[in-house]
Structure prediction request, 86 residues.
Amino acid sequence: MPNANGFTETQQRILELLSDGKPHRRMELKAQLPDELSSLTAMQMHVSVMRKVLNPKGEDIVCRFTKEGISYQHIRLLSNPYTGYK
Prediction:
């Protein structure tokens, strides 16, 4: 069940991990899921839902592809009066 911020407990743990603004590997995010048998697909679904909550607040979680693999990073979007971000 979502909390006042719109995130479940699992999503809140993922957001706390990403709060340093640095890229984190997929397996680091997956480790925040409550069940060690959870899949990467479940983790990606959490990230997708989180992006929908963060985007109206001028934030996002971006996926980065590097030679080391896939990572996720929490970012703030630039202000743009044409898209409604302040």
Notes: The helical segments are 9-18, 26-30, 40-54. The chain has one domain: 9-76.
